[in-house]
Amino acid sequence: MGIFGALTTAVAGLQAQSFALENISGNIANSQTTGFKRTDTSFQDLLMGGSFNPQRQTSGSVAAFSRATNDLQGALVNTSSATSIAVSGSGFFAVSAPKGVSDGLPVFDGVDAYTRRGDFQFDRNGYLVNGAGYYLKGVALDPDSGNPVGSSQPIRLAKDFFPAAATTNINYKLNLPNKPQTNNFEAGDPSSWLLDPGVGDTVAAQDSEAFLDSSIEGESVTVYDKKGQAYDLQMRWGKVSNGDPDATPPTEDTWALFYKSDNKATGTDTEWTRVDQDYTFGEDGKLTSPANGKVTIDNLTIDGANLGDVQMTHGAGLTQYGDTSGVASTTEITQDGAASGQMVAVEISDGGVVTASYSNGKTRALFRVPLVDFNAPNQLSRLDGGAFAATAGSGLAFSAENGAIVGQTLEQSNVDIADEFTKLIVTQQAYSANTRVVSTSDTMMQDTLNMIR
């Protein structure tokens, strides 16, 4: 190879170590960049000359190449931001970069980029944008079924109201005491436990005292009409008859449920209304009628407002077991209606579901963030801002199977500062050694030239 070959090889070595230094510098500079993937350097020897004699082959020159680490996980750290997300395992978020602005809104070209930088926040237009300016893409969800609707698109949320919903079902589970301690209760007189026989299907205000003295308090729940107007539904229970297993035919304990239809107690309207269904219980305290544990209140009317037919669902949760307190013990009472509500908060939960919370206490899943992967993620082309573009070498994106989205979490850079400084020292020493080869080659050429003087 000779002196000139040695000089050329040394220069190639200087170039290769300079290339490595550039990668190390970029890694160190981005050691705190969210989702950054460091770039390592690989060296490849190049055979100089064309000799096929093994005894005449030289060590050759060198070339440096970048080696991506897109498939290496960075550390995950918790964050207080409800819209920050991270990837645990393999995979990338699909994002879009705007190509321009029209009427104050970004315009997208439909070409996806991919990133693991998950520090997303809302911009003034309601889009989720990360710190590098990339817009997060997701699939809209049907508000009723939760099923995906349409294709992936940049996520944009409007401050829409949660629509009002009328109450159609009430889940009501409780235990009724077999010896209700009404105001008329006398321990040795079973007839004192029963509802006043003068109480009919409706109770006027002037007759309410006899009703209240012979019944026990049930529970109350707020119900809603179609416009979201709230009404207080109060309930009371009266035991109609005591069962007798020795009678022919045997009889069972029977109860009646009443609801307060006039909360204002004007004295003119019906104050309490009986539900058109008798409740019976067997000797074991379990509900026998209605058999399916469901009752429909026809035209539920409170304070003159007709809320329509409302189903009361008890299931197996309505019982009549012995209770020394003598009062009704409610275990569950919920209903499906709601007032309208304003959006007050948005979060991206584990799994990538974008969920909005509303002032009426309701929540709604609006989008699902997909996670995509590649057969060769290290062959992706690097873009500004920690994003990547698909290449022929990476293959097409497909749904990630070995990764998961974690909410309120960010992925840190996968740069190890200690490792980078170690590589920095090695690179510096290798560069210095190559400069010595250059100076030595120069000296030898000078000596050769001096031979002819």
TrEMBL record:
It comes from the Bacteria. Residues 219-337 form the Flagellar hook protein FlgE D2 domain. Residues 408-451 form the Flagellar basal-body/hook protein C-terminal domain. InterPro entries: Falgellar_hook_FlgE_sf, Flag_bb_rod_N, Flagellar_FlgE/F/G, Flg_bb/hook_C_dom, FlgE/F/G-like, FlgE_D2, LlgE_F_G-like_D1. Its main location: other. Keywords: Bacterial flagellum, Cell projection, Cilium, Flagellum. It is found in: Bacterial flagellum basal body. Pfam families: Flg_bb_rod, Flg_bbr_C, FlgE_D2, LlgE_F_G_D1. Residues 86-138 form the Flagellar hook protein FlgE/F/G-like D1 domain. Residues 7-37 form the Flagellar basal body rod protein N-terminal domain. NCBIfam families: FlgEFG_subfam. Belongs to the flagella basal body rod proteins family. A flexible structure which links the flagellar filament to the drive apparatus in the basal body. PANTHER family: FLAGELLAR HOOK PROTEIN FLGE, FLAGELLAR PROTEIN. This is Flagellar hook protein FlgE.
